[in-house]
């Protein structure tokens, strides 16, 4: 009896080959919303037209540069004590 049901299932699969063909029903690319997006290097002066991932990379790079330059500005830096080779350190 079990062999009979397996054979019936295989016959039903063979009878409907359209069920094996993948369908891409909701993946149509013809209905875009808004203006087309461009790469950052194609139009660098208008961020509203950039692709989202390019905008994110540029924004994070800008914030990183701002924080790093602020750190360097406000940390004051350490004065460099340069000693030349062959000289003895001066005692004050």
List keywords for this structure.
single chain; 92 residues; mainly alpha; 40% helix
What does this structure look like?
The protein has 92 residues and is mostly helical. The chain contains 2 helices and no strands. The N and C termini lie far apart (105 Å).
Distance between the termini: 105 Å
**Fraction in beta strands:** under 5%
Number of helices: 2
Order of helices and strands: HH
Low-confidence stretches: none
Secondary structural class? mainly alpha
Mean pLDDT across the residues is 78
Can you tell me the overall shape?
elongated
Radius of gyration: 34 Å
Helix content: 40-55%
- Largest sheet features: none
Number of strands: 0
Region (Disordered): 19-46
Structure, briefly:
The chain is built from 2 helices and no strands. It has helices at residues 2-15, 52-74. Residues 19-46 are annotated as: Disordered.
What layout of secondary structure does this protein have?
Layout: H1 2-15, H2 52-74
